[in-house]
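thread from #wetlab-drylab

HS: before we spend reagent money on co-crystallization trials with glutathione, can we at least see a predicted complex? here's what I'd submit
DV: go for it
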Amino acid sequence: MERIGVGNVGEIMGKYTYYGHDLSYFSRKLESALVFYGADFDRVQVSLGVPSEEARKRAGTHIIPVLETPEGWALWDTTPIMRMLDARFSAKMFASGELGVLIHIIENFLDEWLGRTMVHYRWNYTESAEFAAPLLAGGDAQIAKDIAAWGSKACRATGVEPPHQQGMAEVEYERILKAIDVQLQQTRYLMGDAPCAVDTVILGGLRAHTMVDPAPSRLVDKYPRIQKWAAIGDGADDWDGSGALNGDTGFARAMLEEMQTAFVPFALANRKALAAREKAFTATIYGEDVSFLTRPYPEVACQMVSDHIAKMGAQDYVKSLGLGALYL
Ligand SMILES: N[C@@H](CCC(=O)N[C@@H](CS)C(=O)NCC(=O)O)C(=O)O
């Protein structure tokens, strides 16, 4: 009989159930992570905005994805879910020490900032919206309409309503695609030869949005290496557990540079607006004053990074990255 180790309880404990949607950024992110963990999981495809399933009701949210654990917990929010799964599986999406902090920082940027680019490509292009809304609604025409209306609001809330910002978001995404493409010529994954949380969120964006929505897929078509890497069940998914992470990849450096120009000013201004209880605020993004809806969640996510930094005693490291104002 195999010995049961404390560190790999999940590996022998049974099945997870993942409630998500193929066209959802965070669903595909979590799904990528579950594959890297080697978790035994069932997939349940749920419509956005239809919280009818038991596990989603129990998780107390309409947000997807929701993960039901073998012990029956229904959890939402991919970052804490992955931090929990790291303690159960031998594969780790967050390394230990400073490298884990760096991974969390880059993941935080991609989760909270790149989402607006995904929203833009989907809901500002009619052809993308007409493709995605019926699929997200599970075929219900009224729900599809409601989802498309929500999409337009999400563009306004995240500062991608002004045409110049739409253009800037696209140029930014093309820079990120180039950085992925260059990195994949050097290592199997974006932070070395093993996958981590950074890969899961980039894969989430490619698989749920930019490789499938008609408008951005024409751009991604220019990067066959990326398409091959992100193909489901192939490329990145085909990992045998070997390889080491590296905090100093060109991709990591490029993301640290990217996040200074737009994400940091946005997150600091959102924090200030939350403290002042203002419903909306303005931040200077790519040389322009852009209006955003104040949202509590980006601050919650930043705080999770701050807690991680404090736990690791990595304050000096974060200062050396020039990110003290955001996280310390
Ligand atoms: N921080 C959450 C974000 C999840 C999220 O925003 N999910 C989107 C779909 S990709 C959603 O359900 N949006 C519906 C809404 O915001 O009302 C996570 O990491 O799971």
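DV: Strands lie at 16-20, 41-45, 66-68, 74-76, 280-285, 288-293.
HS: ok that's useful, forwarding to the group
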